[in-house]
Amino acid sequence: MAYKNYKIALSIVLLVSIFIACSSQSKLKLGIDPLKQQALYVEECGAFTCVSEVNSKVQNNLAKAGKKMLQIYLIRHAKPDVKKKAFCSADEAQQYVKDYNSVPIIPFDPDLVSVNLQSNHTIYCSSLPRSQETALNIFGDKYPVVADSIFREFEIRMIDANSFLKLPMVLWQGLSRGSWMLGFNHRGIESHKEAKLRANKAAENLIKVARHEETAILVAHGMLNGAISKELEKKGWRQIQKQGHVNLGATILVKIINE
Fold first, then answer.
1. Which CATH number do you get for residue 116?
2. Are residues 99 and 24 in the same domain?
3. CA distance 94 to 111
4. Number of domains within the chain
5. pLDDT in tens for each of the 259 residues of the chain?
6. pTM
7. What domain of life is recorded for the organism (predicted)?
8. Which residue range(s) make up the domain with 17?
9. Is residue 66 located within the same domain as residue 173?
């Protein structure tokens, strides 16, 4: 009986050893955690935001195993040139939103964004001026820029209130956005449900671009970038950098696929 148990234990040890050996060989073929390697490669750049191809060493290691890495950049626009009152009425808050959607951006140092891409890329942005202007400033001299309303920011409508009521702008935005997300306050604009469906479609569009160009680049907006990122993660993409909510920052997502 003891001998039989010994043989069973030995068999288990051998199976575990074979499994570990196979896993080790797989790691050698793919390289040690290519996602971390790509994240470190991005961090090595000295600029505030770096836009580049997948690291060639990472891609070459993946190619040995018949795989490759795709990546998607979600960049937020530069800061719009609009002034915000300390306290304002609901009507003034709504006017601020209109101004925010139409004014030019504040000029920024071009060295804040480093671009190292091949020439085969198309840059995508939203139909709103701040997104278009930012994209043209960063990429327009070398790459075609295509605007599409599917990439516009989630719309916002200020809640109705007495004109005598003065609140901080951030509070108007919080109350209005919160009620919109709960399914109210969407008269004349898309609902939260419709906006989420649009974000999912935008994610699908970017995946198609990434499959064709390997790296997809979008210059859009904070909330939309966050929503697209969530949709991509549901589809198996992994986030290696999260700055798409900051002006000129980028959220970067990657996915390893079979070639």
1. 3.40.50
2. no
3. 34
4. 2
5. 444 444 444 444 344 344 433 443 334 344 479 999 999 998 888 899 999 999 999 999 999 999 999 999 999 999 999 998 889 999 999 999 999 999 999 999 999 999 999 999 999 999 999 999 999 999 989 999 999 999 999 999 999 999 899 999 999 999 999 999 999 999 999 999 999 999 999 999 999 999 999 999 999 999 999 999 999 999 999 999 999 999 999 999 999 999 8
6. 0.86
7. Bacteria
8. 1-30
9. yes
